[in-house]
Amino acid sequence: MRELRRLLAYLGPYRWDLLMGGLLVLIETAFELVIPVLMADLIDVGVENQDLHYIVGKGIQMGVCALLALVTGLLYARFAARAAYGWGANIREAQYERVQSYGFSNLDKFESSSLVTRMTTDVTVLQNAINGGLRPLVRSPVMLVMGLGLSFWMNARLALIFVVCAPILGLILFFVVRKVAPMYGWLQKAMDQLNNVVQEDLTAIRAVKAFVRGEYEEEKFRSVNEELMETSQRTFHFAVLNLPAFQFTMYTAIVLILWFGGGMILKGNLQVGELTGFLSYVLQVMNSFMMISNVFLLLTRSLASAHRIAEVLDEDPALTDPAEPVGEVPDGSVDFEKVSFKYRADAREYALSGVDLHIKAGQTVGILGGTGSAKTTTLVQLIPRLYDATDGTVKVGGHDVKEYDLATLRDAVGIVLQKNVLFSGTVRENLQWGDSNADDETLWAACRAACADEFLRRMPDGLDTDLGQGGVNVSGGQKQRLCIARALLKRPKILIFDDSTSAVDTATEGKIRAALAKLTGVTKIIIAQRVTSVMYADLIVILEDGRVHAAGTHQELLDHDPIYQEIYASQMKGGEDHGQTAQC
User: Fold this and answer.
1) Which of residues 454, 476, 491 is at a domain's end?
2) Among 63, 164, 295, 416, which residue carries the largest CB count within 10 Å?
3) Residue 461 lies in a domain
4) What is the pLDDT of residues 399-440, one digit of tens each?
């Protein structure tokens, strides 16, 4: 409940819509409660005395009350919808903003599919709680209290039947809610699993078709879909039990009231109009009990979703700005001082161990290493502070990276990822991620340096060519060149190339390398699998098992380091063990 109250703070300006909706429900309820009293008078006075004028007057009063109840009900719907969907939009925005502030270590705790579910399905549950629950939440207690009061006022002896029925209904509600409450959490987790399979299949649809694994993926989807179906069936099987139980209790109460009320009429202790009005209050009171039970079920499901949403909002970002951050990166020098790193505090082994590495500003550094040597996912991600070192210090421009404002540090570092990422939109829109104010001349200059102009000029719309979702309209090599151009547009002090020319031919790679060599004052860190990509670097670093095995120039390593000699032999001289001994 605490989490749900906290989320209500995100109503913002829509809290007035919520309050207005509640007020309108109160007014609507008051009009409806007046109608049975008017109906009793109409029967007992107007019909009994055959007073047509009195009957018409009471009928008009009942019609006015009904019309006013209708108008207030329609106005309530408008305000409730604004409150529900405005609240939902604010919560989604808050979650999305929170996720953007996460470090990679935070994101490792949540599956992407789960985050999607929390921002969509779970928020929809909360919206439905407002849309479907606000009216009965306000209306039911009022109807219950006023209906019981008026029932005792009309006939206290008949109203004692409520005293017997109320505990029965309360017990039914208690057992239903107790059984269903944990099931809603399981239901949302089943939804997470379904979304995960769908997301994975759509992302890798080309691989699925290439390996003819459609039937396998269909079976996997069928499994999680059936799990969701069975969980939903179990959950709502118990959730709907309250309806027949409440109806049974309600109709039993009506039969008892008719039985005892009929006896009282025969004895002259009760009038027909009073019994008719009393039955109207009976229906209102019993319906209010039923609506309260539905509100409890909605609230129970909302609490499960609110807990999941609160987990996203309560997750403290692993990386934060210091109190007095350094506002500018002086140069592109990089220093690793006895740096060790592991992804989780309870991990047994370090991904990086005791790394000492010093890169001068403007140097070109190549990094080679075997698979699992932590050269890509760990070492270079410590530079823009995507992760924090577990031990030791990482410095950029002579300052500890923790001293910088995160935006300032990351703006000074350009990264071309091994897995190239382009977004839906045009080439221009993607390139302007590097510089939102870049004009066409600047964009074409970056494309020429990345050798992307060769294929862009052949496209009918040039920079305005639509790339499709995720850049599906260009090849892997073309994606890489566009990503390089995008990084160059940042004009960073440090450029990191994470095996970013693996999909281009050697001639194009040579052109790109020559263009990069002309960049002065920019530190270039090149992670590669090919010796030719790094052999002209000022410094080549060999990583092995998360440690710096050796560092030096191409010639120094070729003369003295066996691992580099092995790599060079397998790639440049076609060694006998080619493809087996290569370490890159």
Assistant:
1) 491
2) 416
3) yes
4) 999 999 988 998 999 888 777 788 888 889 889 988 888 898
Q: Are 538 and 550 in contact (CB under 8 A)?
A: no
User: For the chain, percent helix, then strand, then coil, each to nearest 5?
Assistant: 65, 10, 25
**Which residue has tokens 């390398």?**
513
Look at the block and give the residue holding tokens 């979304």.
195
Structure tokens at 328: 């500018």
pTM for this prediction: 0.71
- Token representation of residue 12: 């913002």
- DSSP tag of 316: P
> Tokens standing for 420?
């190239």
DSSP string, 62-104: HHHHHHHHHHHHHHHHHHHHHHHHHHHHHHHHHHHHHHHT--H
Tokens representing 443 are 């964009």
Nearest to 285 by CA among 463, 437, 165: 165
CATH number for the domain that contains residue 289: 1.20.1560.10
Angstrom distance (rounded) from CA 218 to CA 197: 10
Domain range spanning residue 131?
2-314
Residue finishing a domain among 444, 460, 491: 491
| Contact present, 208 and 214 (Cβ < 8 Å) | yes
